[in-house]
Amino acid sequence: VQLVESGGDLVQPGGSLRLSCVASGLTFRRYYMSWYRQAPGKERERVAHISSDDLNTNYADSVKGRFTISRDSAKNTVYLQMNSLKPEDTALYFCYARHAFIATINYWGQGTQVTVSS
Predict the structure, then answer these.
(1) Which residues of the chain have pLDDT under 70?
(2) Residue 19 confidence (pLDDT)
């Protein structure tokens, strides 16, 4: 199983980025997908989550109204659209997959760096 993130970059405050995570080696429709982030010296936190059936999403309070998670099952890909970026969004962003019925089956990507700075 592989989760490969991309789309991280250096962006100015107020800018936008779209992160992508391509999953391989698993049955994508059977997995909840999430984005986490970890800033230097801080704990990893969940940013956004989408259910295996696309019906439910939830977000950390710090990103509500600015970030949108979505998934494309035809491409085995989950996205994170990030708008109105702030310096405090600077972090390494990770993709996470968890089996919808067996929580002990889960995988992490290697991360993609997002830096928000002028």
Answers:
(1) none
(2) 98
